[in-house]
Amino acid sequence: MAADYKLNPFTLAYEGAITENAKGKVNIHPVTYQLNGIDISANVYTPGDYNPGNKYPAVVVAHPNGGVKEQVAGLYAQRLAEQGYITIAADAAYQGASGGLPRHMDRPANRIEDIHGMADFISQYAGVDADRLGLFGICGGGGYSLKAAQTDKRFKAIATLSMFNSGRVRRNGYMDSQLSTIQKRLRQASDARAQEAAGGGILYAGDAKLTDEQIAKLPFELYRQGFDYYWKTHAHPNSTFRYTMSSLLNLMNFDAASHMDLINQPLLMMAGTQADSLYMTLDAFKDAHSSNNKELFLIDGATHIETYWKPPYVDQALGKLTEFFGKALK
Predict the structure, then answer these.
(1) What does the pLDDT look like over 243-272, one tens digit per residue?
(2) Of 66, 102, 58, 113, nearest to 237 (Cα)?
(3) What phi-psi label fits residue 152: left (phi over 0), alpha (psi between -120 and 50 degrees) or beta?
(4) How many structural domains compose the chain?
(5) How far apart are alpha carbons 182 and 280 in whole angstroms?
(6) Range of 140's domain?
């Protein structure tokens, strides 16, 4: 039951995680598959009544920036499997237990392709009804899910939780706090790319090792609580904040909230009322003019990170997800 990955045979780092596969209960199936020549490491969760000869709706779950499949993505994948869905959570290429060099490359095109790749794999999984495929993205995975769903109509319904627009934040800073340094940071990213091309070392961003005192002084609650979640309470050795500095060349002209009118599937966007990231969900939601059924669901009192693990908030999100997918994937 502990969130300590060392105490779980599947290295799952969330409360209530599966510790063994038992008949009549949700089971976990670690899998590896190839995507564009890269080994992708994923976990498939099957419901308690799973019979490969039957047909089940399925949900692809995309993890947050810096996260891995064993953390919040696994929690929601497991809980959705309890509701009768076959689910998949995979580590992004170049990250986690998946392959790809250089490590920790974080380019939007890769993350979006990861989501298409999860759809490829799970659609062929025994028992999956490919005509009832949903997509659920958390934090950065939420932003990339919006982009994937704009063009990939295999996804019949899309949901996000605490959506994080990676491009906007890398470009403008969190809460648009770094507008004055955009050109300086682009120069740093360009220099990093040049160094890589010349055979030099890989430069990384987001690699700081902060003390508790330094964390407490961070200006944004998302970052303060994020350090606690990823470094302490739900830490996993494959999870890290770092990303290659050269990735900013691709991140800083990316916007998860552009072309929202291409989403014509049912859309559910969820966020906490106390999340300092809420502005990103609101901005994307208002532009989803073509969705044939869209809903904004606010979780009262929740911050961004608290939607990852705090039971009352997780239960609210899962209740809404179950209702949403139950209708959209019926």
Answers:
(1) 999 999 999 999 999 999 999 999 999 999
(2) 66
(3) beta
(4) 1
(5) 19
(6) 5-328
CATH number at residue 184: 3.40.50.1820
Q: Which amino acid makes up residue 179?
A: L
Owner of token pair 């019949």: 156
pLDDT of residue 2: 53
Residue type at position 49: D
Q: What are 223's two structure tokens?
A: 């970052």
| Identity of residue 134 | G
Which amino acid is present at 142? G
pLDDT digits (tens, 9 = 90+) for 188-209: 999 999 999 999 999 999 877 7
Altogether, the residues listed in the chain come to a count of 330
The whole-angstrom separation of Cα 88 and Cα 46 is 9
- Cα dist from 18 to 1, 26, 163, 218, 281, whole Å: 8, 8, 26, 34, 31
Query: How many helices, marked H, and strands, marked E, lie in the chain?
Result: 11, 10
Q: What is the dihedral of CA 13, 55, 117, 226, to 10 degrees?
A: -30
For 104, counting Cβ atoms within 10 Å of its Cβ (0-12 exposed, 13-18 middle, 19+ buried), the class is buried
User: Considering Cα of 314, then 319, then 325, then 328, what sign does the dihedral take?
Assistant: negative
Helices (H), 25-107: 72-82
Between CA 256 and CA 193 the distance in angstroms is: 23
Q: Look at phi and psi of residue 206 and say left if phi exceeds 0, alpha if psi is from -120 to 50, else beta.
A: left
Report CA torsion sign: 82, 131, 271, 45.
positive
Residues 6+ apart with CB under 8 A from 313: 272, 299, 301, 302, 306, 307
pTM score above 0.85: yes
pLDDT in tens, 35-76: 999 999 999 999 999 999 999 999 999 999 999 999 999 999
Q: Where are the alpha helices (DSSP H) in 124-197?
A: 140-151, 166-172, 182-197
Nearest to 137 by CA among 89, 174, 104: 89
